[in-house]
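stage 2 :: seqdesign
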C-alpha cells in the first residue's frame, strides 16, 4: 500500500498543486482546508496518515496550533510533519520546529525538493 499524505492548507491552489505533485510520485493524498479540518480528517480516516504537510496561516486553526495538537497525542507523536509556509523568518521556523515539525519549508518550494524531503522523512 502506498504511503498516505495529509495536506493541510487554506489555499485551494496550494492544496491542489501539492496533491498533484505527491500523487504523481505514487502517494495517496488527503487534503484539509485548515487545522480543524486537518484534525477531523486525521481522526476519521480509515487508513493511517504517514506524513503531514501543513501551512501556517489558516483560518479557524493555524498550522502551529494544529501541529501542537497533533504532537500532544500519543498516536501521532512520531508522524513526520513538514511545514510549508510563506512565513520564513527565523522565529517562525524555530517555532514550527519547536512544536515538533520535522522540517520547515518556505513557499514557494521547489516540487523536487518537496518530494525529496517527503521521501527522506518516510525513508
Ligand atoms: Mg495559508
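stage 2 :: out
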Amino acid at each position: 500500500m502506498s504511503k498516505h499524505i495529509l495536506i493541510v492548507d487554506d489555499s485551494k491552489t496550494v492544496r491542489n498543486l501539492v496533491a498533484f505533485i505527491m500523487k504523481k510520485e505514487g502517494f495517496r493524498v488527503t487534503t484539509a482546508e485548515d487545522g480543524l479540518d486537518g484534525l477531523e480528517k486525521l481522526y476519521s480516516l480509515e487508513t493511517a496518515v504517514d506524513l503531514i504537510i501543513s501551512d501556517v496561516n489558516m483560518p479557524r486553526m493555524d498550522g502551529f496550533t494544529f501541529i501542537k495538537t497533533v504532537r500532544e497525542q500519543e498516536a501521532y507523536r512520531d508522524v513526520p510533519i513538514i511545514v510549508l509556509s510563506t512565513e520564513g523568518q527565523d522565529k517562525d521556523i524555530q517555532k514550527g520546529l519547536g512544536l515538533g515539525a520535522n522540517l520547515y519549508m518556505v513557499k514557494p518550494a521547489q516540487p523536487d525538493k518537496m518530494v525529496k524531503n517527503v521521501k527522506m522523512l518516510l525513508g
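stage 3 :: structure notes
- Residues 9-11, 55, 57-58 surround magnesium ion (CB under 6 Å).
- The first helix runs from residue 12 to 24.
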